[in-house]
């Protein structure tokens, strides 16, 4: 794709030592928009432009909206993004800086999405933040890049929000005939996939809570649930405090600031919640953190007594 980049694959000495294995960090935080969403959204936007789109409509809790706004700017296409009230001002400002129209509506992404869909017409194309094949195709390229660098992972650890990341990674693993565990990490207040796994049915949460607002989908996409039922997906939940502690440790260890949604993944490694072996090559998706600042992370440490 034109508007995403090949991201670094870094072996983490600290996390490898802690977990007695080889931990490989896929640094999606280094994308131009600060998250893996640039792969998914970038691919979808390009596909729709090829089909004649002249305006983009989307809904987002943060990172997807930032990428749609960015793509609109580089493709010279107007963009409207509807975000819920939980979206950080930092994320909204980044969308506005790319020239997008941003509308704040509703208490959750579901509310924002309903309004966004009402704006769709023959000329304005809807860019779903997590539920479309174009998105998963873009994400699957992450696995292509890892394999090209000579690493065949024995496990993947990633965060789950709406489900585009796990859907795309699963697709990439299948392409390369890798039947390996995927550890799906959510915060306690956003655990729509983990709840679905435990109940064995695709459920919608009554509400989503906590600071990991970019994970705050009440229901994962059907493809993500299907992946969890047909593959070796192992769900874990972590607290908001654990995510913040992981963000701070990662900043110290790797000089990279990531948001709590990404800290959720990192926390299970810092807290050694998964048992690995010395020969394991563990792929960790560092999904990003465009909408976080150090000041905000510091406020979370006070609020959560981290």
Written overview of the protein:
- The chain is an alpha/beta fold and 306 residues long.
- It folds into two domains: 9-36 and 133-303, Rossmann fold (3-Layer(aba) Sandwich); 37-127, Rossmann fold (3-Layer(aba) Sandwich), CATH 3.40.50.
- It is 44% helix and 16% strand.
- It has twelve helices and ten strands.
- It has helices spanning 13-19, 37-50, 63-75, 89-97, 109-118, 133-148, 164-175, 192-199, 222-230, 240-254, 260-270, 294-303, and strands at 9-11, 22-27, 55-59, 79-83, 101-104, 124-127, 155-159, 182-187, 233-238, 281-286.
- The strands form two sheets. Strands 1-2-10-7-8-9 form a six-stranded mixed beta sheet, with helices on both faces.
- Helix 7 links the parallel strand 7 and strand 8.
- Helix 2 (37-50) crosses helix 6 (133-148), helix 6 packs across helix 7 (164-175) and helix 10 crosses helix 11 (260-270).
- The longest helix is centred in the middle third of the chain and has 16 residues, at 133-148.
- The radius of gyration is 18 Å and the shape is globular.
- It is an enzyme of class 4 (lyase).
- Its EC number is 4.3.1.17.
Key structural traits:
globular; Rossmann fold; 4-stranded parallel β-sheet; 44% helix; 306 residues; 12 helices; alpha/beta
- Backbone shape: globular
Largest sheet: 6 strands, mixed
Radius of gyration computed on alpha carbons:
18 Å
Strand order of the largest sheet: 1-2-10-7-8-9
Family: Belongs to the serine/threonine dehydratase family.
InterPro entries: Ser/Thr_Dehydratase (IPR050147), TrpB-like_PALP (IPR001926), TrpB-like_PALP_sf (IPR036052)
GO molecular function: L-serine ammonia-lyase activity; threonine deaminase activity
Keywords: Lyase, Pyridoxal phosphate
């Amino acid at each position: 794709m034109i508007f995403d980049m090949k991201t670094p694959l870094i072996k983490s000495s600290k996390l490898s030592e802690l977990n007695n294995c080889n931990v490989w960090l896929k640094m999606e935080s280094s994308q131009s928009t600060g998250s893996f969403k640039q792969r998914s959204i970038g691919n979808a936007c390009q596909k729709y432009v090829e089909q004649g789109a002249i305006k983009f409509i989307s809904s987002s809790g943060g990172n997807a909206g930032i990428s749609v706004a960015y793509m609109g700017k580089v493709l010279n296409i107007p963009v409207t993004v509807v975000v819920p009230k939980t979206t950080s001002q930092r994320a909204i400002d980044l969308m506005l800086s790319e020239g997008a129209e941003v509308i704040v509506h509703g208490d959750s992404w579901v509310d924002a999405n309903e309004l966004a869909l009402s704006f769709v017409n023959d000329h304005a194309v809807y860019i779903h933040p997590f539920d479309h094949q174009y998105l998963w195709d873009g994400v699957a390229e992450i696995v292509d890049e890892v394999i090209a660098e000579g690493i065949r992972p024995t496990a993947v650890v990633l965060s789950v929000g709406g489900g585009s990341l796990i859907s795309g990674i699963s697709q990439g693993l299948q392409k390369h005939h890798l039947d390996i565990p995927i550890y799906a990490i959510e915060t306690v207040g956003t655990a729509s996939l983990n709840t679905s796994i435990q109940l064995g049915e695709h459920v919608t949460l009554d509400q989503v809570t906590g600071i990991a607002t970019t994970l705050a989908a009440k229901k994962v996409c059907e493809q993500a649930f299907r992946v969890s039922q047909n593959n070796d997906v192992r769900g874990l939940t972590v607290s908001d405090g654990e995510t913040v502690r992981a963000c701070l440790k990662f900043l110290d260890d790797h000089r990279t600031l990531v948001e709590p949604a990404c800290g959720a993944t990192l926390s299970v490694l810092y807290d050694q919640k998964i048992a690995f072996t010395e020969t394991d090559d563990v792929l960790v998706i560092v999904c990003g953190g465009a909408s976080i600042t150090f000041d905000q992370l510091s406020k979370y440490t006070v609020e959560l007594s981290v």
